[in-house]
C-alpha cells in the first residue's frame, strides 16, 4: 500500500477512488488509489496508519461493488472493452446532398455491391421512389437494393430523399435535398436522368405503357424535363389553380440542419426543385455514356457536378447548368419532346383530364416551352464555380478526435464557444468515411463519447451533431478523457480499419485549467503516444491553462501546443491549428535495420495537394545506405525530401525528384544517414512530401472520392544500375552552402 500526494487542491484528510475500466472478470486487482490532497503531516500519516483496517475493508467492499456491477477488475495490461456511452443520439433526419452522397457511397463500398456497375447502383436508389411501369420502360428494369446494405434508419431517410410526395394540408414536400449552395433539388429527378442516359434511346415507343401513344420520344427528355413540363401544361389546362411552375419553399428547423421542407404555395406539377433536378438529371444523363467508360462512380459524379464541375468536362457543372442546358437543348427540340410525352400521358390519363382537348396539346406544349427558359433563369441563375486547386479543404485521410472540456470552470457560454471552435475546424476537413472521420469526447468528472468515428460520413450531419452536445459541468478528469480516446476510440479504429490506405490519428484536446490528477494524466498521455501509430496530439489551453500539462499532452512541445487568453480568442487559432493538423505526417514504417521488410505504404493525393511522411531514425540507425521507392498511379507526382523540415515542398526541400508519371519508379538514395550521431534519438528523421501534379482522371477505386486522385506506393528499394541519385551527404552539403550564402548576404 502506497500513499501519494496531490497538489493544487484544498486540504483534506485523504481520498480513495477506484476505476471500473474492464469487464474482464479474470483480472483480480481493483485499481484503487489512495492519495493525500496535500503533503501529509505526521499527524495525518499516523491517522492513516491507525485506519489500515478500515482501508482494507473499503478495498474489499470496493472490489465487491466492481464485481456486483458486472465490471471486471482491470489488470495493468488488460485492454478495456468499449463502455463509454454515447451522450448524443445519432442524427438521421438531415436532408442534404452530402448525406445523400454518403448513403450512395455506402452502397457503392459495401462488400455485397462494391463490384456493381454505376447502372446498377443508380437503379438501386431510383427504385426507392420510381418503380412504376413508365420508369421501368424509360430506364430499364432493375434489381432492388439488397437489405443488409443500409440500416433501417438510413434506408428510411434515403427513401424520403427520393420519393416524390406532397401533402396539401401541411405543404410538406419529400424527395428533395439541400445542397451546400442552398439550392433545393429533387434527387429522384436527377437519378432518372442518369438512368435514362445510361440506357439512352432517342426513339423510344411508349406504347408498352399506353397503347395509343402516337409519337416516339427520347427517353432522356421523358425521364426529366419533358415529363414535368408536359404534365404541368395538361393539369393547368384541366383547371389546376396552381401556377405552371413552382413554387419554392423553406427548410426547418434551419438551413444548417434541414429536416423538413415546406412549399410556400400550392404545388404545381413542376416545382422549382423538380425543374432543377430535371435539368441536372438531363445534363448528367447526356454526358454519362462517355464518363461511364472511365469507371466513374455515382458518388464521384455527384461530388463533381455539384462542386466545381465534372473533371472530364468542367462545362458540366451545377453552377453552369443554364448555359450548358441552352447549348445542348434548343426550343424546337424541347417542344417536340414535350408534345410527344404530353400526348402519351393524355392517352393514358384522359379520364382524369376531362377538360383538356386533345387537339390543344401541341398549343399547350408551345406555351409552356416558351415560358420555361425565362423561369429557369430566375430559379437557377449563374453562380460562381468553386475551383478545386484553391480549395482550403483538408483531404488528408485521418481519424480526428476532439476532446472537449465541459468542467465547471468552463461554463455554459464558453462551452458554446468551444463547439463553435470545433465546428470551424471541422469545416476545413473533407468529411467522409474514406477521408476524415471525426469523433468527439466530452469530459468533466467523467468522460463519454459524444460522437463516434463511424457515426457521420458527411459534414452537415456532423456539424448538427456538434450543435446538440450539451453542457454538464464537473471536475477536470483529463486523464480519463485521454484513456477514453485511447481505448474506446482510436484503438478500436486501428484494429478495424475502414480502408487499406494510410490514415493519421489526430487528437485535439481543449482544456481551460489544471487536471485533477497530473500523475494519471502523465501515464495516460504516455500510453496513448506509445500505443497509437501515426498519432499527432495537439493541446489547446484556454485562459487558466497549465502549460506543463499542455506540453505533457502534445506529441511535439514546439509545434503542437496552442494557447488562447480566453474563449473569445479561440477563433484566432483555427488557421494555424488546421495547418498543423492537415500536415500531420505518416510514419512510413519501412524498417531498414532488418534484412527484409515487405512493408508498402499506399496513399492518395489530389493535384495541387500534398501528403507528408516521415521515417524515424530508429528504423535506419546503423545502416550506411538506404533506398526508398515511390511509384505513382493514375497521375504524376513530385517528391521532396528533407532532414530539417517535416513538411518539405517546393519552397523548402533539400532533395527533389520528379515529376514522374504513372508507373514510373522514383528512387530516393540516402547514405551515411546518422554519421556523427550517437543514437537514433538524436539522429534526425527522413521527411518526405509527395505533391500531386497532373491526373489521368481514372481513379475509380473505393478509396477515391474523386477520379482525379493520384494513388502512390512507398516501399523499400534496391540499387538501380545506371541511375543517378543524390545522397544525404550531398543534401547536407547543399543545405550548408545555402545557409552560408544567406549568412554572407546578411553580412553584406
What report would you give on this structure?
This protein has 748 residues and is an alpha/beta fold. It folds into 3 domains: 97-380, no CATH class; 398-583, von Willebrand factor, type A domain (Rossmann fold), CATH 3.40.50.410; 600-717, Jelly Rolls. It is built from 21 helices and 24 strands. Strands 12-11-10-13-14-15 form a 6-stranded mixed beta sheet, with helices on both faces. The longest helix has 21 residues, at 272-292. It is globular, with a radius of gyration of 31 Å. It starts with a strand and ends with a helix. The model is unreliable at 1-40, 55-83 and 723-733 (pLDDT under 50).
Which key phrases capture this entry?
748 residues; alpha/beta; Rossmann fold; Jelly Rolls; 3 domains; six-stranded mixed β-sheet; five-stranded mixed β-sheet; 21 helices; 18% strand; disordered N terminus
